[in-house]
Design brief:
Blueprint: H1 2-25, E1 39-43, E2 51-52, E3 58-59, H2 61-73, E4 77-81, H3 84-92, E5 98-99, E6 103-104, H4 107-110, E7 113-115, E8 120-129, H5 135-143, H6 146-170, H7 182-197, H8 210-243, E9 258-261, H9 265-272, E10 278-280, H10 283-292, E11 297-301, H11 302-312, E12 317-319, E13 324-330, E14 332-334, H12 340-350, H13 354-362
Parallel strand pairs: 1-4, 1-5, 9-10, 9-11
Antiparallel strand pairs: 2-3, 6-13, 7-14, 8-11, 8-12, 8-13
Amino acid sequence: MKIFMTLLFVVAFTPAFAFAQNSEKGTGIQPPGEGQESLRVATWESPPFAFKNTTGRWVGISIELWNAIAQELNYKYEFKEYTLDGALDALTNKKVDLGAAPFSITPDRYKTMDFSRSYMMTGFGIATTKVSDDHISTLLNRILNWDFFKTISILFGTLIFIGGLVWLFERKRNADQFARGPLDGLFSGFWWSAVTMTTVGYGDKSPITLGGRVIGLFWMFASIIIISGLTGSIAAELTFFRMTPKVSGPHDLKSAIVGTLRSSLEADYLHQEGIHPQEYKSIDEGLNALVNGSISAFVADHSILSYSAARSFPGQIEILPQPFEPNFIAFPMPLESNYVRPINMQLLKFLQTKEWDSILKKYNARQ
């Protein structure tokens, strides 16, 4: 009888005990239910993967892929907008449940977060401005700008002022060289100050009064500083022109002024290559700097660069056709997330469908 009761106890309670153990461990699947809170999904402006359309709705490759997965899993969610480094920080500190944007899988990131299976391979791209074949006109455009004309105007004003002072001292005792009349006298003074500054020194005009010679001595030393400054500015423009040729590939980046996205995989790569790029918060900010001439190349994801340049800077930016340093993008999640397994299951299913091909075609993306 005791043996029978023992067997009955084991048969009756073992399934319940096993179920309790499985519940404690977690199956990895989170059925939403009626009271489930919305998942917090981090994203950032990175077309064609994630961006807002004209109605303010988030769209893009990563967004539409996540929408399809969440629909199959019956997950409710809300998007939280960040910068790239802000999104990575939110994922690391478990402030969000998932990221939907072009997040690349890297060893360093894998230490602080989990990733889904990769859904797309991409690579680094280089954006540069289209340089005219007419190098002379390009150089002249760099030098003959508004700042240059302001400098020349100030210089002419200084020459007239110094020349006028000398004329005031010389007009009575040295009328042969500095005419008494205001118009002729000011021109004589201007001529003297100009040839003195340039060290040409024709010798046709020379102050003889004490006041004129004191001003002349001061102007000689001041002219050395002014000429040195002008020479340095022009030399800097010429050097910049020589040091920033049209970038034709990754091998040119070390001799160029390079920009990239802050906290990005491209930034890590550039630092490893000994290149110290200027870092920007967004793709559009970096491409604006490229168009404005602050940098001569911008390195980011090839697909993002191609899409953003065509949409926001048509005809102004050239994207080099061949991407380099291939990498894989996926959905990141906080460490030990229970959503990894169910998301992976639906992700693998969806990547085999025609709907996925339609999304890629819609945004002119390639696998």
